[in-house]
Design brief:
Distance between the termini: 13 Å
Strand content: 25-35%
Shape: globular
Number of strands: 10
Number of domains: 1
Strand order of the largest sheet: 4-5-6-10
Mean pLDDT: 88
Low-confidence stretches: 25-35
Length: about 190
């Protein structure tokens, strides 16, 4: 973070500069002031549990946030809950809320459970990402993924959920019993 300029905090991420008022309550809520000094997308963020993917823009009423993805991944994991609707896990942009809904479900959701239990650098606030969070990763750091298909936390139907191909960037639904890959994500609000 560069020095305060006219009561504005300035966050620098590579060539990008973002300014926030110092009295912004959302900025004051950040759990780690040093966390605002993000590396370039694709680089490991020391102490933050993974690889920096970039900034998710503000959507709906949410604030923008830094997105971090795990260095580890689950291989051969199913989405779970085949044949059942998970109505609270339909957000295409909020993986955290989708994952909470899946964890609270009465059915097993192995991909979400793996992400929810993931811990790195002392952080245990990971979740299974939503479609748009995976899209950001394809745009900013696709080389950090295998050229394969990864689960999102977004349900498509009672029998299918959305996923992301890191071969061509396409997103398609697949059967919830299909074995795929999963990465855990966490966020730091800006």
């Amino acid at each position: 973070m560069s020095p305060v300029e006219n009561n504005m905090a300035v966050i620098e991420i590579g060539p990008l500069k973002i300014s926030f008022p110092m009295d912004d309550p959302q900025l004051a809520r950040s759990s780690n002031a040093d966390a605002l000094q993000a590396p370039l997308p694709g680089e490991y963020w020391v102490g933050q549990g993974g690889i920096y993917a970039g900034i998710m823009p503000a959507l709906n009423d949410a604030r923008p946030y830094h997105l971090i993805l795990s260095v580890d991944e689950a291989i051969g994991v199913v989405w779970g809950g085949c044949g059942h609707e998970e109505d609270e896990a339909r957000s295409r942009h909020d993986g955290l809320e989708n994952t909470r809904s899946l964890i609270e479900s009465e059915r097993d959701h192995p991909a979400a459970e793996w992400a929810d239990q993931y811990t790195k650098d002392g952080h245990s606030d990971f979740y299974l990402p939503a479609q748009r969070e995976l899209s950001l990763c394809y745009a900013s750091c696709a080389e950090k993924f295998e050229k394969a298909w990864y689960w999102s936390s977004a349900q498509y139907s009672a029998d299918n959920a959305w996923g992301q191909f890191f071969v061509d960037g396409s997103q398609v639904s697949a059967g919830k019993g299909y074995t795929g890959r999963a990465r855990a994500f966490r966020r730091i609000e800006i």
